[in-house]
Design brief:
The complex is a heterodimer of chains A (about 110) and B (about 500).
Chain A: E1 2-5, E2 8-12, H1 22-34, E3 39-43, H2 52-67, E4 71-75, H3 79-87, H4 100-107
Parallel strand pairs in A: 2-3, 3-4
Antiparallel strand pairs in A: 1-2
Helix pairs in contact in A: 1-2
Chain B: H1 2-11, H2 17-26, E1 36-42, E2 47-51, H3 55-59, H4 63-67, H5 72-76, H6 82-87, E3 99-106, E4 112-121, E5 132-138, H7 140-158, E6 163-167, E7 172-175, H8 177-183, H9 205-217, E8 219-227, E9 233-244, E10 250-257, H10 264-282, E11 288-290, E12 293-300, E13 308-314, E14 319-327, H11 331-352, H12 355-370, E15 371-372, E16 375-376, E17 380-388, E18 393-399, E19 404-407, E20 413-416, E21 419-420, E22 434-437, E23 442-447, H13 459-470, H14 478-491, E24 499-506
Parallel strand pairs in B: 18-21
Antiparallel strand pairs in B: 1-2, 1-5, 3-4, 4-5, 6-7, 6-10, 8-9, 9-10, 11-12, 12-24, 13-14, 14-17, 15-16, 17-18, 18-22, 19-20, 19-23, 23-24
The chains are: A alpha/beta (about 110), B alpha+beta (about 500).
C-alpha cells in the first residue's frame, strides 16, 4: 500500500518477507522508486521476518535511490526485525526508524 | 457328575435360577469361554437372576455386585450409553424377538471395552414373570483392528507414493490411487499375477531375485519396466519389502514406486547434486593442530545444495586466518558462488591479512563478478578472525553475519559483533573491526545462521540459546565440542538451512 504525505511517499508492507512473496516485494520497491518523490519510506511495522533476498532488495533500493538523488529509509524497525537489521549491520549505510513518524520527522528535517 | 446333577434336580424342587446356572457353569456347560458373559434377568423387578462368573473379566466386578444393585447396568455403562442400558429393562418381551446393541462399558481401572450384547426373551410359561437372557461379547480387539484397517485404507488412499501389495505368491491384492494415477490400473488387477503388469518378457526367476534381495538386505530395489493400462512402458525405480505375519512368515509383499515426476534426467540431476555436495564438502579445510591453536570445523548440509563454507590458513609462524561464509539463498547458484569465493580466498587472505582489507577485497570481487546493471544479484555474510597466537589477540570483523563467540577460561563470553554490511551488497564497505585479547584455554566458535534458525524465539533469543547450548561443552577439545554440536542438530531433525561451525581452541 502506498501513501503520500507532501513530498514523501510511503510503501507500507504488512506481511513477513519470505520466498513466497519476495518477488512482489521487489516489484513494490521498484514502483516506490519510480515515484516522483525524493523521499521514500518503507514502513515495515507489521513485519517480523525478512529473508536474505528481501534484505538484498532493500540494500539495492537504497543504493538505487541514492543514484537518483533520492533517499529511502525504513520505518517500523522494532523487535525481531530490528535484531535482523542489527546483525546484517544495515544501520552502517542506511537510516532505520522505529516508527513512521520518526522517519517523516527525519525526512522533513524536524 | 451328571448323575449327581440330575439327582440334585429331583430332590431340590425349589432351587433358584442362580443355583441352577451356578451348577451348570461349574460343570462347564455354560459358555466356557471367558470372552462371553451370560446373564438372566427379570426386567419387571429390575433384577439380575444370574450372571456368569466371566463378568469379572469383562466388567472388573464379581457376580455378587450384579445381584444386589439394580442400577448396575447404568453404572458400568459409558455415559453416552446410559439410554441403551436403561432400554435393556424395557425389552418388548411380548414380541418374542431378540435385539442386539453395541455398547461401551467402563472397567474398574478406568479403561473401556467395546461389547456386543444380544438379548432374547425367555420362552417360558412360568408364573414368576417375564425373563430375558442375554450374552455379551467383548469386541474391543476386533473394533481396534477394524479402526486400524480403516486408518490404513485412508493412508494408502491419500499417500502420494504409488504402491501395490501382493500376497506371498505375488498375486496382486491391493493398489492405491497414486498407482492408478501413474499406470491407469485400478482394482481390476486385484487377483491377477503381478507379472501381468510387466512390460515385455517376464522371467520367473525375477521373483526369486526379489525374495533373495529381501532375505539378504531386508528389501529389494531396482528399475522395473511396468506396463501401463494404455500399453505404454513406465520404467520405475521400485522398492519391494516383505510384510511378515505373527509366525514370522511372509504374508505380503509391498511394492513402492519412485515419484510421479521422476525421469531419467531428474535421476541424473539428483546424482549430480549429490556429487556437487560432496565436492563442496571436500574443499572445507581439514583440522589443523599447531603451536598455540587447534582448529576444526563441521558442516551439516540441508536437503539441497547450500552456500556455507569455511576455511583457515596459516599466514606466518604466529598468525592464522579463520573464515566462515554463508551465501544468500540456497541451491546450485549459492553453491557455485561459494566455490568461486573459495578459489580466491587463499590469495586474498595471504595478501590482505587483516579483516578490513580482506573484506574490501572480497567485496570488490563480488561486485565485479555478480553485480549486473547496477543491481545486486548475490551477496554473502561472513566472519573473519585473524588470530595472533604469540600476542594472544584476535582481530575480527563480521560482515552481516551472526556474532561468533569467544569463550574465555574464566567463563566470560564475548560476542564478535563488530563489522560491516554483507559482502557484495554495497559498492563500498565501511568495516569496523574488533580486537580482543584472550587467555590460554579460550575457545572461539564461529557458526552459520542454520544454528539459530527454526527456533520459536526471536533472533536475539536464538543466539543466546545457542550460546548457552555451547557453554557446557567449551572445556572439551575442538573435535569433541563439534561432535556434541552435530548430535544436537541431528537430533533436532531435518535442517531448513545448512549448518556449519568452526571451533578454535586457543592455548
Amino acid at each position: 500500500m502506498e501513501t503520500r504525505q507532501g513530498a514523501i511517499r510511503t510503501l507500507t508492507w504488512t506481511e513477513d518477507i519470505t520466498l513466497n512473496n519476495v518477488e512482489s516485494f521487489r516489484q513494490a520497491l521498484e514502483q516506490l522508486l519510480a515515484e516522483r518523490a525524493d523521499q521514500l519510506i518503507v514502513n515495515m511495522e507489521a513485519v517480523n521476518y525478512i529473508n536474505s533476498a528481501g534484505l538484498g532488495m532493500i540494500a539495492d533500493s537504497v543504493m538505487a535511490a541514492r543514484a537518483q538523488q533520492k533517499e529511502l529509509v525504513v520505518a517500523g524497525v522494532k523487535g525481531s526485525l530490528a535484531e535482523i537489521f542489527r546483525i546484517v549491520k544495515f544501520y552502517s549505510f542506511m537510516k532505520l526508524f522505529a516508527t513512521e513518524k520518526e522517519a517523516i520527522d527525519y525526512l522533513s528535517g524536524e | 457328575m451328571i448323575d449327581e446333577f440330575l439327582e440334585y434336580l429331583r430332590h431340590h424342587k425349589n432351587f433358584t435360577w442362580r443355583e441352577l446356572f451356578d451348577r451348570l457353569e461349574k460343570m462347564n456347560m455354560l459358555f466356557g469361554s471367558n470372552d462371553y458373559v451370560y446373564w438372566l434377568a427379570a426386567p419387571d423387578k429390575r433384577k439380575i437372576l444370574f450372571i456368569s462368573s466371566s463378568c469379572e473379566q469383562l466388567y472388573g466386578l464379581p457376580p455378587a455386585a450384579f445381584y444386589h444393585d439394580e442400577d448396575i447396568w447404568m453404572k458400568i455403562s459409558y455415559p453416552d450409553d446410559h439410554a441403551k442400558a436403561e432400554a435393556k429393562w424395557a425389552l418388548p418381551w411380548e414380541s418374542k424377538v431378540s435385539t442386539q446393541t453395541y455398547r461401551i462399558v467402563n472397567q474398574r481401572d478406568g479403561s473401556v471395552r467395546w461389547v456386543l450384547e444380544r438379548m432374547v426373551p425367555v420362552l417360558s410359561e412360568a408364573e414368576e414373570g417375564n425373563l430375558i437372557s442375554g450374552f455379551v461379547m467383548d469386541i474391543t480387539e476386533t473394533k481396534r483392528n477394524r479402526d486400524e484397517i480403516r486408518l490404513a485404507e485412508q493412508v494408502y488412499a491419500s499417500i502420494e507414493q504409488a504402491m501395490l501389495v501382493t500376497d506371498d505368491e505375488f498375486a496382486v491384492r491391493f493398489v492405491n490411487s497414486a498407482f492408478t494415477k501413474i499406470t491407469g490400473h485400478s482394482t481390476e488387477v486385484v487377483g491377477q499375477p503381478l507379472h501381468t503388469l510387466y512390460a515385455g518378457y517376464y522371467a520367473a526367476w525375477f521373483y526369486e531375485v526379489i525374495k533373495n534381495g529381501i532375505v539378504e538386505s531386508g528389501q529389494w530395489q531396482g528399475r522395473v519396466r511396468w506396463r501401463r493400462k494404455n500399453g505404454s512402458v513406465s520404467v520405475r525405480r521400485t522398492t519391494v519389502r516383505a510384510v511378515h505375519n505373527q509366525e514370522g512368515n511372509i504374508s505380503f509383499y509391498l511394492f513402492l514406486f519412485s515419484g510421479l515426476h521422476e525421469t531419467p534426467y531428474a535421476e541424473a540431476m539428483k546424482d549430480d547434486l549429490k556429487l556437487a555436495r560432496e565436492v563442496q564438502k571436500r574443499v572445507l579445510s581439514k583440522p589443523l593442530s599447531a603451536n598455540g591453536i587447534d582448529i576444526a570445523g563441521t558442516y551439516i548440509p540441508s536437503q539441497e545444495l547450500g552456500g556455507d563454507m569455511y576455511a583457515w590458513y596459516q599466514i606466518d609462524n604466529q598468525r592464522y586466518g579463520i573464515f566462515l561464509m554463508d551465501v544468500m539463498g540456497h541451491g546450485a547458484a549459492a553453491s557455485l558462488i561459494c566455490m568461486s569465493v573459495r578459489s580466491l580466498l587463499n590469495g586474498i587472505i595471504r595478501k590482505a591479512i587483516v579483516p578490513q582489507a580482506v573484506f574490501y577485497e572480497l567485496n570488490r570481487h563480488m561486485r565485479q563478478l555478480y553485480h549486473e546493471n547496477g543491481q545486486m544479484t548475490y551477496y554473502f555474510t561472513a566472519v573473519y578472525v585473524l588470530v595472533d597466537v604469540k600476542k594472544r589477540m584476535i582481530e575480527y570483523a563480521s560482515a552481516g553475519h551472526p556474532p561468533g563467540f569467544l569463550f574465555q577460561p574464566d567463563g566470560t563470553v564475548f560476542e564478535l559483533d563488530r563489522g560491516c554490511a554483507p559482502i557484495g551488497l554495497l559498492p563500498g564497505l565501511f568495516v569496523d573491526s574488533g580486537q580482543l585479547r584472550y587467555e590460554s584455554g579460550a575457545t572461539l566458535v564461529l557458526y552459520s545462521d542454520g544454528a539459530i534458525e527454526g527456533e520459536a524465539g526471536s533472533v536475539r533469543q536464538n543466539i543466546e540459546t545457542f550460546r548457552d547450548t555451547l557453554a557446557p561443552y567449551v572445556s572439551l577439545d575442538e573435535r569433541a565440542l563439534l561432535a556434541c554440536l552435530r548430535r544436537h542438530f541431528i537430533q533436532k531433525g531435518s535442517l531448513r538451512d545448512d549448518f556449519s561451525a568452526v571451533v578454535a581452541k586457543l592455548r
